[in-house]
Write a structure and sequence with these properties.
Layout lengths: L4 H9 L5 E9 L4 E8 L4 E3 L6 E3 L7 E4 L7 E6 L4
Length: 83
Amino acid sequence: MFMDEKAFFTRILGIKLPWFVNQVMMDEAAQRIDIYVDHERDIRVRCPECVTFYGMYDHAPERVYRHLNTARWRPIFMCGHGG
């Protein structure tokens, strides 16, 4: 069964809607995989303090997270809103 890179990383990392893998960039020389995670438009999120749902309108700058190696590759997550 063939699976593209976005579907592969979505599945093995357990990413669920409304979040999704937006882009995967592989750098063979650096043995690095950059995985860009985004969310669907117009989602509502629950406040952890008052448990009320609110629309998302403000985003922090893009953040970068280092994940455990996948085979010999170093996965790097880029999290932020793409537009």
